[in-house]
Amino acid sequence: MKRTHLLALGGFVCAWLTLSVPAEASDASAWAPSTEAIRFNLELMRSDDLLVAGERLRALPAVHRFYEQRNFNAAWISAGRAKPQAAELVAAIQDAAADGLQPADYHVAPLQRLLARESLDTPEQEAELDLLLTDGFLTLASHLQRGRLDPTALDQDWTLPRRSGDPLTELTAALRDGDVAAHLRSLAPRHPGYERLKAALATYRELARGEPWPRVPDGPILRLDDLDPRVPVLRARLAAEFGATPEPLLAEHYDWPLVEQVRTFQRRHGLADDGAVGPDTLAALNVTAAERVRQILVNLERWRWLPDSLGERHIRVNVADFSMELVDGGELVMRKRVIVGKSMQRTPVFSGRLSYLVLNPSWEVPAEIAGKEILPLIQKDPKYLEKHDMQVLQGWGATERLIDPASVNWSQVSATNFPYRLRQRPGALNPLGRVKFMFPNQYAVYMHDTSARGLFARSKRAFSHGCIRVEDPLELAEWLLRNGGYKSGDRLIKTVLASGDEQVVTLSRAVPVHLLYWTAWVDDDGVIQFRHDLYGRDQRAELALLEQSAPGSEDS
Q1: 183 is a catalytic site residue
Q2: pLDDT digits (tens, 9 = 90+) for 6-60
Q3: Cα separation of 363 and 447, whole Å?
Q4: Fewer CB atoms < 10 Å away: N or C end of the chain?
Q5: Is 224:275 a contact under the CB 8 Å cutoff?
Q6: At what angle do helices 123-146 and 33-45 cross, to 10 degrees?
């Protein structure tokens, strides 16, 4: 049977009166009856399903270590009363809602009830309060430092390094310094983007508490000067989120001011800003304010998964936004469109170090692509390899040898029995284009140019096998060489490209590269941005957050 409160056994209580009191407890307050109440219940928790004031302790191993270090003496109680730090912690727990965290996860309701008492009448009440405060601090500290979820448990392609930290050390320091709230605030991500997204959360929570946004009905694409009964609904929907536009002479007229507001909406959602309300724009319009709140919560959680610093100079790719940004000295110096992996060949999330470029790269065709995609084309057209300037090879290094494609009976080769390697020579047909940017990693993913540059005009750009194709890659290459030990990097690039020969160029200073996944953020101009959940990662994270929330949590 589950125990729902701290146990007070008659003989146990009597035993307190006969125990010898330690003269002094190292690094802890003087011995009190609550000491044995804390010890007794922590020992029970090692093997029993025990609740404290109806609450389950979430950081039980750390709670055990904390009290063992202080000989089980109370940390938050003195002379039968809570210390001022207890009320300070409860206030910080309430403030955690602003970070997208759930105060109920940190025992806010029972803590408020216990603190509302003028005094704590029994050792059991003292132990309850002390244990809940300790567990609340440790759990909140862990969530602020590293997030509520383990991203690698949600997605095997998510391997970004996370922040390190020890909540137990933070608790000890907070109690020593007497400033609990300041210690907790210092554990949250320090990125300006995190603070901006917190402000957006407050805004969208307020919107979600208001009247539901009007839902724009399905229908034909709306274009400038159309007359349509859905126009008043569209106007009301945009006004609910962004404010009203001037009323038209005809209520159903899709006029220019409304078109401009739709274009602004489209830019905020990564859509083609043509002002036409088609299926993609309609779908984004009909996302509710409550859904946007949950989207912001997921992305705040992602901030807590990041390391403290991405690097003074770094490249970051937002896979969900199909964009790449180059940052130097904290300033954005370059932004480019990119193409990322298809839904079935997703671009992973990880960090690497860009250490060298390859100019005029050849393409070593991955075995899976060679067998599943190119082999059927070879079997259909014997001249396919010649037309695409591809070599057939066997072996590696010193044992590598060229194979005459005409000597192979391709009809007898299959995707599961493909004993060859395919390599495409540098040139106009090569899908890697003129340059590739290498940051060695377990996924064999890198950034590169492309021969299919027309795809950059699309608003949705998930076309690759996982690598990142970069718009205007030579501009990025020149910047990297100029700032990586090559004063005449542009001249070097032109010379090598003109030669047609493959050449590796090593940077004197490697640049961190972070492949990220943001579907909600606030840009440097203070504008909230939302993106479609390309790989369904939001959905999985949202479900996991809901499953971990305590009953009655806000937004759950």
Answers
A1: no
A2: 444 333 333 333 333 343 344 444 557 788 888 887 887 765 567 888 899 999 9
A3: 13
A4: N
A5: yes
A6: 60
CB of 127 closer than 8 Å to CB of 37: yes
448 given a catalytic annotation: yes
User: Does an H or E element contain 376, and which?
Assistant: helix 375-380
Burial 186-217 (b: 16+ CB within 10 A, else e): ebbbeeebbebbbebbebbbebbeeeebbebe
Q: Which domains does the chain have, with CATH numbers?
A: 10-185 (no CATH), 198-292+527-548 (1.10.101.10), 311-362+429-518 (2.40.440.10), 364-425 (no CATH)
pLDDT tens, 263-276?
A: 999 999 999 999 99
Task: Check 107, 183, 314, 467 and give the catalytic one.
Answer: 467
Chain centre distance of CA 458:
25
C-alpha–C-alpha distance, residues 435 and 470, integer Å: 10
Do 426 and 503 contact (CB within 8 A), yes or no? no
Q: Cα angle at 126 between 120 and 128, to 5 degrees?
A: 120
**For 29, which DSSP code?**
P
3-state SS of 484-536 is CCCCCHHHHHHHHHHHCCCEEEEEEEEEEEEEECCCEEECCCCCEEECCCCCC
Confidence of residue 487 (pLDDT cuts 50, 70, 90): confident
